[in-house]
Amino acid sequence: MTQANPTISLPLTLPRKDPDPMSAHLGLNTELQLMMSLARSHLRPEDITRLHAWGPHIVDWQAFASRSSWHLIAPLCLYHLTALDSAPWVDEAKHALRPVARALVVQGLEKALVQRRFVEEHLQAHNIPYLAIKGRALGCQFYPDPSLRPARDIDVWVEQRNKRAVIESAQAGGYVTDLSGRCLGDTELLIHIDKRQNGIGLLDPNGARVELDRHLDKAGLRFQFHDCFERAQSVNIDGIRAPVLPIEESFIYACLHHARHGFLRLIWLADLDAIQQSPEFDLGSVMQRADALGLRSTVEACLGFYAACKSDDPLAHAQSDERAQDILKTCMAVSDLQHAKEVSEVKSSLTADFLYEWQLDERDRKHRLMRWVQQQLWHLRPSLADYELIPLPSVLYPAYWILRGPLLVARRAFRRLRYS
Question: Which of these ranges, 26-40, 126-140, 149-163, has the smallest mean pLDDT?
């Protein structure tokens, strides 16, 4: 029967046999501490000291490898451990990590090929402005090697007015929409683009997902495409020059996005480290931009969380900053329960972008009412189900706004009769 990794408090001089392996870090177990130490783009001498202190106390390296794969840090873990001197625990860890790290690297290469083709064939070929964001873009821009930054899907920021042209081109190339699993006609595209407020997913013939993001912040109050595109940096992403976010927006958006999800995956902690290691990173410029975007509190809290995760005792370090402590506790909770807990956290969030009261500024407090109104109006937007009932040509698309109410009532009445 597999043993759980013990929850322990380790001074850096601890010998291998700890007389009290359960003197707790209040729930922050050795496995999570070790993963936090490995979730960075570059190791410092103090990080290596912690690895040698905590590594020998991992009971089940296969379980560690599985969790590091879920956190998308298995390649980083293997990369760092390979640089350490040989030791029994190091050799055992590398043996467990190799297959899962290799699988993530292969998946990353496959997604990189999809991203390159998508950009060349469906964006650049039509001169459509775009910004490559998240996973592979961060890997190519900030990590020692792009393969160290796996991603679950491919994210591209495209203006709403260009969505239809991109989708039509992609559908001609074999893509389908994630919602319907098929190609959509003219009227259906109008409905789908209008209904999906935060992003539209496309699937290639092999199931690789491309997300066409509408906003970086879900409320659309802060990051503006034109502003970011005008100041975009150009990065070589797998052989093509692609525009990416300015470094200030890259860091601020990482803080906003990752905090919104409670730093569910530790690769997001590595993102904060990797961006800060860039020679172009200037904290003063970042904070100035964060002030302009109303996100200073979020950025400061993430910096506090990052500093706590670098320390010998993250929970003790975070006590000096309640905001960092909030993020750390959320990270610990979602790390244990993984996606189910993360969904619960997000559903109970204050706004579409924020989990915590201290993140809000005046514009967000005003937006809370607007968000409620938008949620009510969302139900009045035409849906693909309306088109299936009454397929109208695209020139008559506005008629669905008139028909939406009666169709909604009719469908609900039909369902009640069907199941009564």
Answer: 26-40
Residue 22 CB-density burial (10 A; 0-12 exposed, 13-18 middle, 19+ buried)? exposed
Segments of 183-279 assigned E as strands: 199-203, 209-213, 233-237, 240-244
Predicted confidence (pLDDT) per residue in 259-282, tens digit: 998 898 999 999 999 999 999 999
What is the pTM (predicted TM-score) of this model? 0.83
Query: By C-alpha distance, which of 280, 272, 277, 267 is closest to 233?
Result: 280
Q: How far is CA 181 from CA 107, 120, 178, 240, in A?
A: 22, 23, 5, 29
pLDDT digits (tens, 9 = 90+) for 375-385: 666 667 777 77
Paired strand residues for 211: 155, 201
Phi first, then psi: give them for residue 267, nearest 5 degrees. -65, -25
Q: Facing residues of 243 across strands? A: 234
Cα 302 from Cα 311, distance rounded (Å): 14
With beta carbons less than 8 A apart as the criterion, state whether 332 and 32 touch: yes
Task: Kindly list the distances between the CA atom of residue 111 and the CA atoms of 107, 116, 150, 204, 337, in Å, as whole numbers in the listed order.
Answer: 6, 9, 9, 11, 27
Q: What is the C-alpha separation between 300 and 285, in angstroms, rounded?
A: 13
Q: How many Å apart are CA 389 and CA 267, to the nearest integer? A: 45
DSSP state for residue 354 in the 8-state scheme: -
Q: Given pLDDT bands bounded at 50, 70 and 90, which one contains residue 370?
A: low
SS3 208: coil
What are the CA-CA distances from residue 405 to residues 243, 271, 377, 379, 381 (Å)? 43, 45, 11, 9, 9
CA distance 325 to 371: 28
The answer to whether the beta carbons of residues 213 and 198 sit under 8 Å apart is: yes
Residues facing residue 131 across a β-bridge:
157
In whole angstroms, give the CA distance from residue 146 to residue 135: 9
pLDDT digits (tens, 9 = 90+) for 177-197: 876 667 777 767 766 666 665
For residue 285, give both structure tokens. Answer: 């410029």
Maximum distance among all Cα pairs of the chain, rounded to whole angstroms: 77
- The two tokens of residue 271 are 């993102």
CA pair distance 275, 141, nearest whole angstrom: 8
